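Lab notebook, bench 4. We co-purified these components, and the gel suggests they stay together. Before we commit to crystallization screens, I want a quick structural picture of the whole thing.
Request: model the full complex, all chains together.
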Amino acid sequence: MNIWVQQIIQVIISGIITASAYAIMGIGLSVIYGISRVFNFAYGSFFTWGAYFAWSLFAMFSWMNYPLVFLIVLPGMFFLGMATERVVVRSLRWREHWQVTTMMVTLGLAFFMDNLAHIVFGHRAKPLPPIFKGNLNPFGFTLSVQDLAMLIIAISIIIIFGLFLSKTRLGRSMQAISQDMTGAEIVGIPIRKVFSYTFGLSTALVGMGGILLAPRYFISPLGGWDPFFRVFVIVAFGGLGSIKGTLYAALILAIFEALISWGLGATWVMPFWFLVFLGVLAFRPTGLMGTWG
Amino acid sequence: MQSRRELLIIFISIYIILLILPVFIHDDAYITGVLITCMVWGTVASVWNFTMGYAGIFTFGQFGFFVVAAYTSGMVTKYLGISPWIGILSGGCMAGLVGILIGLPCMKLKGAYIALITFALHLVVGPLIKVGDPIGTGGSTGLMSIPTLKLGGYIFSRTQLIPWYFVALVISFLILLAVYKIIFSSVGLGFIGLRDSEDFAKTLGINEYKYKLMVFGLSAFLTGIIGGFYAHYAGIISPRLLGLDIFLMVMLMLIIGGMGIFPGAFLGGFIIFFLNELLRPLASYRFLIFGAIVVVAIKYMPEGILGNLDFFKKLTKKILFRKTIVPE
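Here is the predicted assembly.
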């Protein structure tokens, strides 16, 4: 096979794998905006903190393994998110311009969390051990087992989340709120409770994304901002509040990102994301599949 | 809500104090430097307050404009040998242009989206500067040895800070005066109308498109002027100006000073900057505290210091009243 074609396919595969992690985080961001209309600027910090929690578990206990880490960190992140909603966001909701006020508050929170991470863990970047070691060589391509595991975990999370939204009572009430908040309140859905569950859920999802991406990139106190911005562009591109749109957008943009960083160099990746963002907002602010904005 | 006269008195008295202050500080380089930085960031915060508090457009891109203007002014004077004063003006115009360009896609958008697109501008200017090394931006190390200001035959030196102090005073005064004039003109009333009740303002014949673009252009231009000044004052500018720490500090000035109340942000600038200097021994804990202050201040004191002016008036009256009671 032509070496160029092979290389491009390799790049696209790595794009798809990154896309899977972006998709999980994108769903978290999309859900929280779609349901509770909160834009969480501390999302990137939760990303970092998820990874740091996992790292400290590995550092504290030598016998620690990944299933156990997921079992401890994800509920932990869920409760952290719920607590954040309770303490920081909830009382602002009924104020004037509360959407922007919550943005400012979460920005302050992000700053607090980043500096706390800096104080607790230091500025040196921390690695997480890979989930699996080794490589596979199907049809002459190299594919690490780690990446494959990431893809499988991410896809299964997405499927579980989809089932959760359509089959469970909580998931359906979330959908109801995102469609019509007042209507949902009238039929007796406890919207405040659902808001705080939503916040917890999205935090758990971004923590998951942090753990999955940490073996690839390193964890550092400010390392959450880059993925946060990318995920945000993905969500805007796909349409805030639309999960299907987020999935497509993650796939398209992550593949383009991989191609650009392979073809033009890594410095062009951020300008690329910004251009996509400007283009989306200028020509189609509702995104690919957004219903409202 | 405070009356226009009260706000004007506060505004003028801040500047009178600033005008007299050099007599007491005897050219102490450290304090003068801190005061100049206060004025620069306080001005940025004030213009931000104009867009956010008065026009109700939630932009997070003020630093993008600031840095664009600083780089424009620095590069124009450094490579083309143009007078720094024209450089500062061209920096302002460049920032205004960028402001209008960013404003155009914002026309269709509402609240939260505008905040996000302008924040994205903030995030992307840094990488663009790093990529722009071949055209002379200096990359990530920054733009070095920017020419200093000249006035008549006098050349400003970087060791003698008092002349800089007065230039900063004049520039920030002019910018704040412009903001004041706009806020309390018919145009400003238009902004406030659009902020409070968009549909109603539109039915009264206020052209939303024109006004919003004007806010973007004007605020970017005014921020750009002070940005251009900063480039010549500092002599070195780097993408680090876009760091989150400065962003948060200026946002805190806005919150503490009082959003939507005219000289509040400028006053907040001094409070935050002196707090910053006081907390300096705490090293990295300082920013932890600042982050916490943002959260606490928004939660418990959303209107800032000037918003709670009545409270402080009552407090001083109470104290005075007690003093008169004591002799009994």
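Chain B has 14 helices and two strands. Worth comparing against the SEC data before the next meeting. The mean pLDDT of chain B is 82.
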